[in-house]
Design goal:
288 residues, globular, Rossmann fold, 7 helices, binds S-adenosylmethionine, alpha/beta, 13 strands
């Protein structure tokens, strides 16, 4: 039964009092403050049409990266620190299981990651019985150079697209024709490089348009920034690929609210969860 604080259906007797975790709300979105693992338990099963999760990548472990030409430590926050491979995997499995329960059979989940976490996510999904639909590679033409010069430049992120169950007929929503039309009439591929500001779209070898997509533009950071903010164009593509208008979208690691900005701008409803007040304040500003 849906309660007054929520745009989503919540359990009749939830273990956590969700209402006391509302950070902000509007007609078509709600932000909750708290631990996703605990809060997800309070939603009815089969509630959400789409979940986008950009979880901790466990990157902040004393390494260095290059920012604006300078060597800086990778320190995104305590939430991004690895607790060791077993504990990290237990955490990943727990939140994926919670997401699986609240996804509609027609819904899908997208999980982004780099090599630090994505194999962990993929293995957990296979064990939990998700059906892996695609592993999309997002190419970042403006990726930071590699400082050690002992590796190739890390310039992609993987986004796993999956449905909650692997048995029986495929039930998930996929706006195949819209994606094909967006790709100049050619079947859209699993390598995405959406447009760089001001750049022309290029047709290569008759395969459809190649899109270049950078990390978030400065205009996406006018209200402040999050250390791992995703570009709006990426989330718009995801929302448009697999939901209808008025669909209910969840982001259990909402950060600066990019998923909410994309979802609401496309006429979908949004539920975001984060445990950090500063990030929730940023999301609220961005959602207006
Ligand atoms: C990788 S960031 C998400 C960034 C987001 N996609 C954006 O565009 O801004 C992960 C977020 O998850 C939050 N977080 C980490 N563990 C959490 C947990 N157990 N429950 C709720 N939020 C959590 C962190 O505070 C952080 O903002």
């Amino acid at each position: 039964m849906s309660s007054s604080h929520s745009v989503a259906r919540t359990r009749a007797n939830p273990s956590t009092d969700l209402a006391s975790h509302v950070y902000a709300r509007s007609r078509d979105w709600v932000l909750y403050r708290g631990d996703s693992l605990a809060l997800l338990e309070s939603f009815e099963e089969h509630t959400f049409d789409l979940i986008f999760a950009d979880p901790p990548y466990f990157l902040s472990n004393g390494g260095f990266t290059c920012q604006g030409g300078k060597r800086v430590p990778v320190k995104k926050g305590d939430w991004d620190t690895s607790k060791g491979i077993e504990d990290d995997h237990a955490f990943t499995t727990a939140w994926l299981k919670a997401c699986q329960r609240v996804l509609k059979p027609t819904g899908t989940i997208w999980v982004s990651g780099t090599q630090h976490v994505i194999f962990n996510v993929g293995f957990a999904m296979q064990k939990l019985g998700f059906k892996l639909l695609n592993t999309v590679s997002w190419y970042k033409p403006n990726a930071s150079p590699n400082l050690a010069c002992r590796y190739f430049t890390h310039s992609t992120e993987i986004i796993i697209w999956a449905s909650p169950g692997s048995k029986g007929k495929l039930q998930h929503t996929f706006n195949y024709q819209d994606m094909k039309a967006e790709n100049g009439g050619k079947q859209m591929r699993d390598v995405w490089a959406l447009p760089r500001p001001g750049e022309e779209e290029i047709d290569t070898e008759g395969q459809g348009r190649i899109w270049t997509m950078t990390t978030p533009k400065p205009s996406e950071k006018v209200h402040g920034k999050h250390p791992t903010q995703k570009p709006i164009a990426l989330l718009e593509r995801i929302v448009e690929a697999c939901t209808e208008e008025d669909a209910l979208v969840l982001d259990p690691f909402c950060g600066s609210g990019t998923t909410g900005v994309a979802a609401t701008s496309k006429g979908r409803r949004f539920v975001g969860i984060d445990m950090n007040d500063e990030y929730l304040a940023l999301t609220k500003k961005r959602l207006g």
